[in-house]
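Lab notebook, design round three. We kept the backbone fixed and only want residue identities now. Task for the bench partner: fill in a sequence for the structure below.
Input structure tokens:
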């Protein structure tokens, strides 16, 4: 059975997309057939893998994750697109993509009263899961319908966290909300860990935050820390993974993180 891991946090700018994209790329390089699913309306993971022009064409002709969640359901034949229709193959080696769409910004208004709205993604991707060993889902920085769908589809979740005071405040709330959602929909999901990411220059307040998080959550925190590196943002801007760049330090960090995370799934 495929291992499905969602990258979640209530705060933006903590490295969710970089972790999701590059973990998926690592899994692909290891020979694991991998599916990357972008449920963030900002479409950052999508644009880290494919050029906006190609995305626009694919969204118009084949659809996006918005269709799978019950929005923009139209096609030339009058039938809603399926997961097989919207998948963009081979964005990286052994990695396929289900792209996102800006329409998801209004999904809570459009689907607020829909029956089983948290389960639409799980039902949509079920027919294609046999073709994948790993599924990675990049979530928006909230617990709205897209994130709920991601968690309801997942076997595991991982929490990226930058070492600043405000980022660390919401972890307990996030974990409690995920626990409640799991209970409400009767779905078991395992916490794969917390990844310290976007670690900047040494500073006492950052060290205190990291120490506090490690003391509070213990072995849930991965040993590997991801430094703030320009090459990570650059790789996204040219639709490449970090493994296609020349920054060996960044490659080493993402490799170590990915190995740790893969061992926890």
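Proposed sequence:
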């Amino acid at each position: 059975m495929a291992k499905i891991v969602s990258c979640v946090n209530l705060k933006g700018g903590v490295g969710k997309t970089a972790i999701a994209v590059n973990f998926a790329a690592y899994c692909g390089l290891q020979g694991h057939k991998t599916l990357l699913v972008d449920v963030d309306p900002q479409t950052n993971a999508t644009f880290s893998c494919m050029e906006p022009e190609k995305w626009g064409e694919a969204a118009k002709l084949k659809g996006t994750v918005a269709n799978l969640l019950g929005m923009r359901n139209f096609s030339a034949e009058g039938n809603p697109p399926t997961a097989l229709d919207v998948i963009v193959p081979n964005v990286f080696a052994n990695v396929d993509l289900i792209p996102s769409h800006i329409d998801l910004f209004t999904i809570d208004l459009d689907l607020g009263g829909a029956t089983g709205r948290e389960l639409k993604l799980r039902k949509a991707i079920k027919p294609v899961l046999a073709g994948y060993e790993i599924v990675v889902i990049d979530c928006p920085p909230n617990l709205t319908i897209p994130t709920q769908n991601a968690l309801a589809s997942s076997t595991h979740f991982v929490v990226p966290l930058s070492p600043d005071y405000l980022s660390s405040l919401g972890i307990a709330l996030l974990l409690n909300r995920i626990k409640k959602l799991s209970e409400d929909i009767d779905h078991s999901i395992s916490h794969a860990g917390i990844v310290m990411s976007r670690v900047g220059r040494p500073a006492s307040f950052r060290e205190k935050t990291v120490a506090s998080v490690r003391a509070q959550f213990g072995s849930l925190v991965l040993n590997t820390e991801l430094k703030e590196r320009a090459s990570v943002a650059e790789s996204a801007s040219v639709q490449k993974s970090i493994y296609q760049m020349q920054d060996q330090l960044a490659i080493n960090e993402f490799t170590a993180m990915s190995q740790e995370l893969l061992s926890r799934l």
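Keep this in mind before ordering anything: The chain has one domain: 3-264.
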